[in-house]
């Protein structure tokens, strides 16, 4: 009986340790935590899907462009309120992401007047889900008190990929027409089908 309790205790500890490894929370501002997150993105081998309200961090923008030009698939959902459409910083970010990646990066934007994106999250290679209070901005990582949860649980990753796909189809594609930013309806988009990669990449890599 004692041996059974001992074995049960060891198995329980192993399970707890495994769950801890599957879930990890880091906080900002913290330069080491930022580098840890940045290197996770840098190590991407297949794709990044990200639902992030705002992006202006130059390191992250340049990394996304490099990854896209190296053959990684990058899909971004961002907010675009009425006052942002003519905002110079927003336009500069969109221009750099699209033009520097030769339109390999795909972007849709939420233009709903009174509703922001429900949460910030991204999935890297179908191996890790990152949910976070932080936007990918200099202010979020350097000045604000933010958190980031790293989740490697299979079911959670698949669920968020499915949610991302549903959200993607509701929003406006971003492209350029005659050197101006244009927002296209899903049915009019030249980028269909967007998620043909998902069955090949996500299922195989998990």
Automatic annotation (TrEMBL):
Keyword Hydrolase: yes
Molecular function GO labels: RNA endonuclease activity producing 5'-phosphomonoesters, hydrolytic mechanism
Residue intervals of the Phospholipase D-like domain: 39-168
InterPro entries from the UniProt entry: PLD-like_dom, PLD_domain
BP GO annotations: lipid catabolic process
Pfam family, one: PLDc_2
Keywords for the protein's UniProt record, in alphabetical order: Hydrolase, Lipid degradation, Lipid metabolism
Manganese recorded as keyword: no
GO cellular component terms, A-Z: mitochondrion
Family to which this protein belongs: Belongs to the phospholipase D family. MitoPLD/Zucchini subfamily.
Name used for this protein in its record: Mitochondrial cardiolipin hydrolase
């Amino acid at each position: 009986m004692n041996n059974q309790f001992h074995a049960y205790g060891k198995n329980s500890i192993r399970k707890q340790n495994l769950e801890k490894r599957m879930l990890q929370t880091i906080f900002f501002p913290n330069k080491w935590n930022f580098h840890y997150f940045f290197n996770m993105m840098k190590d991407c081998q297949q794709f990044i899907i990200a639902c992030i309200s705002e992006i202006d961090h130059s390191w992250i923008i340049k990394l996304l462009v490099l990854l896209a030009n190296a053959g990684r698939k990058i899909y971004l959902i961002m907010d675009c309120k009425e006052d942002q459409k003519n905002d110079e910083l927003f336009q500069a970010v969109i221009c750099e992401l699209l033009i520097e990646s030769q339109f390999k990066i795909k972007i849709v934007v939420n233009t709903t007047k009174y509703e922001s994106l429900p949460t910030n999250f991204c999935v890297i290679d179908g191996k890790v889900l990152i949910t976070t209070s932080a936007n990918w901005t200099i202010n979020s990582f350097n000045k604000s008190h933010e958190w980031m949860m790293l989740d490697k649980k299979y079911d959670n990753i698949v669920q968020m990929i499915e949610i991302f796909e549903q959200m993607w189809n509701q929003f406006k594609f971003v492209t350029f027409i005659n050197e101006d930013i244009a927002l296209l309806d899903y049915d009019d988009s030249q980028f269909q089908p967007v998620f043909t990669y998902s069955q090949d990449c996500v299922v195989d890599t998990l």
